[in-house]
Every structure is written in structure tokens, then in C-alpha cells.
Design brief:
The complex is a heterodimer of chains A (about 400) and B (about 290). Helix content of chain A is about 45%, strand content about 20%. Chain A is built from 14 helices and 15 strands. Chain A has a 5-stranded parallel sheet, with helices on both faces. In chain A, strands 7-6-8-9 form a 4-stranded parallel sheet, sandwiched between helices. In chain A, strands 10-14-15 form a 3-stranded antiparallel sheet. In chain B, the strands form 2 sheets. Chain B has a two-stranded antiparallel sheet. Classes of the chains: A alpha/beta (about 400), B mainly alpha (about 290). Chains A and B meet through β7, α7, α8 and α9 of A and α1, α9 and α10 of B.
Chain lengths: ~400, ~290
């Protein structure tokens, strides 16, 4: 009898709260920025991602005057999948977090996505590279917003091969990410009429690349493809210059962020081609936003950091439009609405979670061409979204019905 | 010409590159061996001191315009003085306790130092240019040898053997060795042992900083550059025999070469080959190759 009465009371209370605050739980939308604040990705995401998410929230409140409150929490996943998924679980279960943004690091992302699917909450992924996120491991609650290895390989490898870099040798970091980047790139090279002469796999992390570079040099390939990331890429580029490899052979960086170029300097990176989802100095809109970011962070945003702003803003707009923070409702709205802001024009979130938008093929400027701080890239080509990303016909995502 | 299916040119260049890396191992493990041999402290902060050496050089160049050659002298002095202060204030209190306490303290110290640098300078690191006089390279026929790398080998070997000479062949070295054998007796003979110990720690740390300056133009100057290297260097010390000075120099060079060869024959294994060697050596000669059991 008592139990029945309690159920009834609960139902009434729930009804009351629904009536009072529409469908937003507790009247609060809570966003969690889960990122690498201390490890190898803390420059390309990290504090800058938190700043970008905070800017999105502040701008949204100022412009849209929502009738719900928006809160933000942040945490460092320390590049460990167990720490990341435990934090996500805690946020979803105990702190009422509705959406997690950034993540940045493929294994952590895969673990957090699983928790999000189980708890029916949303993940907006910005910095991880692997195509697993939108293929084998895809789910209905995850958006991969900025880029993936397919788009990077496609943009850089195709252009470099078409411009005459017909023979390739890959310097590949020896774990899943490197293997998939090499595989994707090699396929593009061969499809564009080039030839892969060989590859060498180096342990992660490596600080001395001389042995591997000497093998790449001995191969005589015109292009050395760097299928690695972060500090490994930085050290391989530096040491390639030291051993006289550049400019006789050219380097193609397959995953390079603005922060890497800034760290290396233009002297050792000039002339390199790379593909990026965002460049701060591309047009008036990107410059305006990036300068605001710069005022707070004292550095220009990477594509992952800019993505955090765009993604959080898009999410909040969907929450406002539907008056709900229910993951299925918001996700449907996000997929229905194209993204139009400084980051993406006509960006669309597909059913596999891939946000499709234009990518940019850029070339690193020489020190003489660079006129002011952070003037690093010349945009050589805009790669339309449909060409840049893996087509749905090749998708291995179980959500895509064929 | 080929040897085991590998062109000899490639093999030769890998041997040379191995020797270059080996000289970094040698100079770092030498510092560790001195500190362990004379102070019985397992200095986990050694990697952080190496990193500090590189950063001091970078800061000196970018903020004060002090060139590489001065940095080569100044950075070891500054970081060595910092080490001496650490010994005076912190390590001194631990000598009566188990080795483990020294290890924990220096490990914690390393984390704090790295954290501070990471907070200040970020993770991507800074570029330190190769000094003008050593820029460029010479084609050797079988490889293109950057002049700077050759200089690293020469400088590292000179410092290593200079240190060995000082400890084994000079009066100061004799005091040091005696001080570790029997501190009371040496004290009774009128030698200030605590100062001697502070000097030793400072010197060991200065060697690490020297290696850091040597490394700055080769690797990106980065807050975690030391922790990536430190574990390998510990393995070198264990293989060479704890506390053996010549042992750590030779082992450092030899392991660099072995690692270089592994990069030719089985690149994926190059990060663990040092540890495989360590296991084998410990099984056959538990005291290390040059250690006295």
C-alpha cells in the first residue's frame, strides 16, 4: 500500500517538475569538456578546448537568451581510456552531464562513446583521428566533428601524388592509428597513380628518428609520408632536415596541427602540404573568432579547438529548438539542421556520426612569406565535404542500412 | 654489397647513428652511476635535470641571446647549483633511511619539475637551432653525417673520460671514493664529507644538464624529453653494474649500437631491445657486466 502511494507521489512530483521546466532535466544543460590537459595532446586540444567551449556557452547565452541554465565541467583524461570512461560514467550518473565534448585521443574516445551509448547521452568528438569512430565502433550518440584519417590521407596524399610525388615511403608509428593512416594513405597514393616503395614502423614514442630516416632516404622515394602524430611528427621533421633529406625528398605530414607548426617553426616545415579542417586566417569570419580566442589563450586555435566552439554551439541551438535535453531528440535535431558558422558552411551530421564539411589543403609558408605572427599557411585548395570524407557507400557502420 | 640481406651502407650508417645515441646514454648513465655509487641515491630526477639543461639553454638563447657555447658551460652550472640545493635541503635528510625513500623523493621531484615546465611552456616543445659553426653535414659515401651529431659524440666522450679520470686518478676523486667507503674515517682526517657529497650530487646533475644542452639542437626541447629517456638509462646502469663508472660509459655506447642494429633488423623491437639485454645480463651476471658482486 505504502509502496503504491510512493510511486504515485513520485509520479506527481515528476509531473510537476516536467510542467515547470519543460523537458530539460533540472532546468540545467550541463556540458563536460573531457580532454588531455597534461599529455601529448594538451597543446592541440587541452585548455584551448575548454576556452573555446566556454566561449560558445557565453556567446549562446548572450545571443539566444535561453530559458535554461548552462553549466560546464572539465576534466583531464590523461590519455587513459579507463580514466576517461570512469569520468564519463561519473558525469552521466552523478552530475547530470548531458553532453561531453572534445575527448581527443582515439582509445579514450572509443571507451567514452560506449558509456554514452549505454547512458543515452551525447559525445561530440573533436580531436581523435581514427575512422573506427564512425565505422566499426559508430553509435547513434556520437558525432565526429572535425576530421579523420580518411579525410587527411585523401586530401594530402592525393594532392601530393597528383603534383608529381609519385613514389612514397611511409614512416609509420607502430600502433592502430599509424597502421590505419598508412593503409588509407597508401590506397590513395596508388589510386592517384603513385607507387609505395616501402615503409618502416617505429615504436611509440620515439625521440631519435635518424635510423628510420636513413632507411627512408635509402629507399630513394620522392615523398616520405609521416604516418605519425604529435611529438613523433615534430621530431621526424626536425631530424629529416638535419640529415639532409629535405629538400631532396619531400615530407608529407598526414596528421599535423597548427600547434605542431608553431612549435617547429617555419624554417624546418616550409613547403610542406597538409590537410586541415580549419585555419584561423582563412577569411574575415575565421579571423574575427580566432582573434577573440587569441586574446584569452595567447595562441591561435587548432582545428580541434575551433571545432569545440562550433560543436557546443550547434548542440545548444538544438537543445533550445527542441526544448529538451533528451539525447535522441537533440541528436535528431542536430542531424536535421545544417551547421553554418565560421567553422563550417553547410556542415551536415550523417547517420554514422560523421560531420561532413569542407576541408582545406594548405601549404606551409616559408619564413620570408610569413608576414605576421601565426601567418603559417597558404590555402591551396578547398576540398568539398563530399569528396573529403569517406562516402557512406564505403561505410562499415552498422547504423547505415544498405 | 650486402650483409644478412641488408646493404652494408645502411648497416654502417646505423652503427654510426647508434654510437651517437649511445653517447647520450653514456653521459646520462655516468651521472646516475656516480650519484648511486657515491651517495646511494637512485636519482629519478635525472631525466628532469637533463630536460632542465635543455630548457636553460633555450631560455638563455631566446630571452638573453646567450649562444650555444656559453650555454654549454652555464646550463650545467645553473642546474648543478640547483641539484646541490636539492641535496642540501631535501636529500640530506634521507641518507639514514632505505634507498626507496631517495627514489620516491626524486621521483616526486621529477614530476613536480616536469609539471611546472609543462604548465609554463606547453607540451609541443621548443626548437633550438643548431649552432652556425656546426650546421650542415659531410657526405661519407655510405651516409650523410650531420656535423652536429659528430660533435655530440666527441663532446660526450671527452666529458665521460674526463670524469672517469677525475674520479679514478685525482686527489679529489680519491677523497670521493674514500668518503663513500668510510665517511667517519675521512671526516676524522679533516675532510669535509657533507660538502663533498653535495658537490658530487651537483656534479652528477650537471652532467645530465650538459647532455641536455647537447640534445637541444637534435630533439625538440620538451618538458617530457627526460622521462622518455630515463628508463632506458636506468637499464644501462643496471647492465653496466650499479655504480661502475667505466662500466656505464662502455655499456651506454654498446647499447646505443645494439639499438641501432635492432632498428635495421627489427625496427618494431627497438624500444625494448635494451630491456631484453638487461634481462639476459641479470640472469647471467646479476651484478652487471662491470659490477663487483
Amino acid at each position: 500500500m505504502k509502496a503504491k502511494r510512493n510511486v504515485l507521489l513520485t509520479a506527481i512530483l515528476m509531473g510537476l517538475s516536467l510542467g515547470a521546466q519543460a523537458q530539460i532535466s533540472g532546468g540545467v544543460v550541463k556540458i563536460g569538456v573531457l580532454t588531455d590537459l597534461s599529455g601529448g595532446y594538451s597543446d592541440l586540444a587541452g585548455q584551448g578546448s575548454i576556452t573555446a567551449a566556454k566561449m560558445a556557452i557565453d556567446d549562446f547565452i548572450a545571443r539566444e537568451k535561453p530559458d535554461f541554465k548552462i553549466e560546464m565541467v572539465t576534466s583531464d583524461h590523461r590519455n587513459k581510456a579507463d580514466i576517461g570512461s570512469a569520468k564519463a560514467r561519473e558525469w552521466f550518473d552523478r552530475e547530470g552531464v548531458d553532453m561531453i565534448t572534445d575527448v581527443t585521443n582515439t582509445p579514450v574516445t572509443l571507451a567514452v562513446m560506449k558509456v554514452a551509448e549505454e547512458k543515452k547521452r551525447i559525445v561530440m568528438e573533436m580531436g581523435s583521428a581514427s575512422t573506427l569512430i564512425t565505422n566499426e565502433n559508430c553509435n547513434a550518440y556520437t558525432v565526429d566533428y572535425v576530421y579523420d584519417t580518411y579525410a587527411l590521407a585523401n586530401g594530402t596524399a592525393r594532392t601530393v601524388t597528383q603534383q608529381g610525388g609519385k613514389t612514397w615511403f611511409f614512416l609509420t608509428v607502430d600502433y592502430a592509428f599509424g597502421h590505419s593512416l598508412e593503409k588509407d594513405s597508401a590506397a590513395v597514393v596508388e589510386a592517384s597513380g603513385g607507387k609505395v616503395l616501402g615503409s618502416v614502423r617505429h615504436p611509440f614514442p620515439t625521440s631519435d628518428f635518424s635510423s628510420f630516416l636513413l632507411r627512408a632516404q635509402a629507399s630513394g622515394a620522392q615523398v616520405i609520408g609521416l604516418a605519425n602524430a604529435g611529438a613523433d611528427t615534430i621530431n621526424s621533421i626536425r631530424q629529416a632536415g638535419e640529415f639532409g633529406i629535405t629538400p631532396n625528398q619531400s615530407l608529407a605530414g598526414l596528421l599535423i596541427f597548427l600547434s605542431d607548426i608553431h612549435s617547429l617553426g617555419l624554417q624546418s616545415t616550409q613547403g610542406m602540404y597538409l590537410t586541415t579542417g580549419f585555419y584561423w586566417d582563412r577569411n574575415e569570419e575565421t579571423r574575427a573568432w580566432s582573434k577573440r580566442f587569441f586574446e584569452q589563450e595567447k595562441k591561435m586555435p587548432t582545428m580541434a579547438q575551433a571545432g569545440n566552439y562550433s560543436g557546443v554551439y550547434h548542440y545548444l541551438q538544438a537543445v533550445k529548438a527542441t526544448g529538451s535535453d533528451d539525447a535522441d531528440t537533440v541528436m535528431a535535431q542536430m542531424k536535421k539542421t545544417p551547421i553554418n558558422d565560421f567553422f563550417a558552411k553547410g556542415g551536415v551530421i550523417r547517420d554514422d556520426g560523421r560531420m561532413v564539411h569542407d576541408m582545406y589543403l594548405v601549404q606551409v609558408k616559408s619564413p620570408a612569406e610569413s608576414k605576421y605572427p601565426w601567418d603559417y599557411y597558404t590555402v591551396k585548395a578547398t576540398i568539398p565535404g563530399e569528396e573529403a570524407f569517406q562516402p557512406l557507400s564505403e561505410s562499415r557502420c552498422p547504423l547505415i542500412k544498405r | 654489397m650486402e650483409l644478412f640481406g641488408i646493404p652494408t651502407a645502411l648497416l654502417g650508417s646505423q652503427l654510426l647513428v647508434g654510437l651517437i645515441n649511445g653517447s647520450f646514454y653514456a653521459i646520462l648513465s655516468l651521472g646516475l652511476a656516480i650519484i648511486f655509487g657515491l651517495l646511494n641515491i637512485i636519482n629519478f630526477a635525472h631525466g628532469a635535470m637533463y630536460m632542465m639543461g635543455a630548457f636553460v639553454a633555450w631560455i638563455a638563447l631566446t630571452k638573453f641571446g646567450i649562444n650555444y657555447w656559453w650555454a654549454l658551460v652555464l646550463a650545467p652550472l645553473i642546474v648543478g647549483a640547483f641539484g646541490a640545493a636539492v641535496e642540501r635541503v631535501l636529500l640530506r635528510r634521507l641518507y639514514k633511511l632505505d634507498h626507496l625513500y631517495g627514489l620516491l623523493l626524486t621521483f616526486g621531484l621529477a614530476l613536480v619539475i616536469e609539471g611546472l615546465f609543462r604548465d609554463q611552456y606547453g607540451i609541443s616543445g621548443q626548437s633550438y637551432p643548431v649552432p652556425q659553426a656546426l650546421a650542415g653535414g659531410v657526405p661519407l659515401g655510405f651516409m650523410y653525417l650531420p656535423i652536429y651529431r659528430a660533435w655530440v659524440v666527441v663532446a660526450a666522450l671527452a666529458v665521460c673520460f674526463g670524469t672517469w679520470f677525475m674520479i679514478e686518478r685525482t686527489k679529489l676523486g680519491a677523497y670521493l671514493r674514500a668518503g663513500t667507503e668510510n665517511p667517519q674515517m675521512v671526516q676524522a682526517l679533516g675532510i669535509n664529507v657533507p660538502v663533498l657529497i653535495t658537490f658530487t650530487y651537483g656534479f652528477g646533475v650537471a652532467l645530465a644538464a650538459f647532455a641536455g644542452v647537447l640534445a637541444a639542437p637534435v630533439f625538440q626541447v620538451n618538458p617530457v624529453m627526460g622521462s622518455n629517456l630515463l628508463i632506458v638509462v636506468f637499464a644501462v646502469v643496471v647492465i653496466g653494474g650499479m655504480g661502475s663508472i667505466l662500466g656505464s660509459i662502455f655499456t651506454g655506447l654498446a647499447l646505443g649500437v645494439i639499438e641501432g642494429l635492432t632498428k635495421v633488423f627489427y625496427p618494431e623491437g627497438s624500444s625494448i631491445v635494451v630491456f631484453v639485454v638487461m634481462v639476459i645480463v641479470l640472469l647471467v651476471r646479476p651484478a652487471g657486466l662491470f659490477g663487483k658482486s
